[in-house]
Amino acid sequence: MKKKILIISSSARKGGNSDTLCDAYAEGAKSVGHEIEKIRLAKLRIEPCLGCYACEKTGVCAQQDDMAILLPKLKEADVIVLASPVYFYTLCGRLKNFIDRTLPLYPYEGFAGKKWQLIISAAEEDKENMQHAVGDFMGLMECMEEPVIAEPIYGIGAWKLGDIKNKPELIEQAHRAGVNA
Ligand SMILES: Cc1cc2nc3c(=O)[nH]c(=O)nc-3n(C[C@H](O)[C@H](O)[C@H](O)COP(=O)(O)O)c2cc1C
To answer: Ligand 1 pocket, 131 CB below 6 A?
Structure first.
């Protein structure tokens, strides 16, 4: 079945390690006929959540910025890929900020059964050290009804721009995850 896949890439670096894993995932998914849209958060203006709860009453955020483009895309997607570099052992602020700004969708009606894929990249080689980042992501999953959560893709040992290209097995893993989206 053809699926709609939304990839949210939060690296500050175009062609960054997590961004490259997103591209491998997208290629895999495309190769089996899925519809892909990849968004780089760094190109958008998304302010932090004001915590004003205006959205609780109106369903709409009080702030007018690019998040308004993304909320309908999240609703429409069958598979949502969230990608982040690991910063100080957790998700980067840009992705966390994006997650906070999904509050107008709370309690995420219509999200049951959507599939979620986390992609993270880090300089360190040890997956254990990336578990805070996975935990942050799981905070969002706690709010979903029956989420289908794919095994995270760990882009380990990737520090400088392009380092991930020296890890063909990880690129292949991301490609395969896309094929099996
Ligand atoms: C502010 C900052 C904090 C970082 N913190 C960590 C860290 O805690 N653990 C780690 O392994 N790498 C850390 N790194 C390295 C990045 O996770 C690594 O370069 C990653 O591959 C970047 O992903 P990107 O190329 O997709 O942006 C940090 C990098 C920056 C800029």
So the answer is: no
Q: pLDDT value at position 63?
A: 98
d(CA 138, CA 46): 22
CATH code 3.40.50.360 for 4-179: yes
Coil, helix or strand at residue 26:
helix
Q: What is the pLDDT of residues 118-149, one digit of tens each?
A: 999 999 999 999 999 999 999 999 999 999 99
**Ligand 1 neighbourhood includes 91 CB (under 6 angstroms):** no
Sort 105 into a burial class: Cβ within 10 Å, 0-12 / 13-18 / 19+.
middle
State whether the beta carbon of 158 lies less than 6 angstroms from ligand 1: yes
Name the pLDDT band for 62 (thresholds 50, 70, 90): very high
> Of 167, 93, 178, which Cα lies nearest the Cα of 123?
167
Tell me the whole-structure pTM to 2 decimals.
0.98
Pairwise CA distance, residues 149 & 1, whole Å: 19
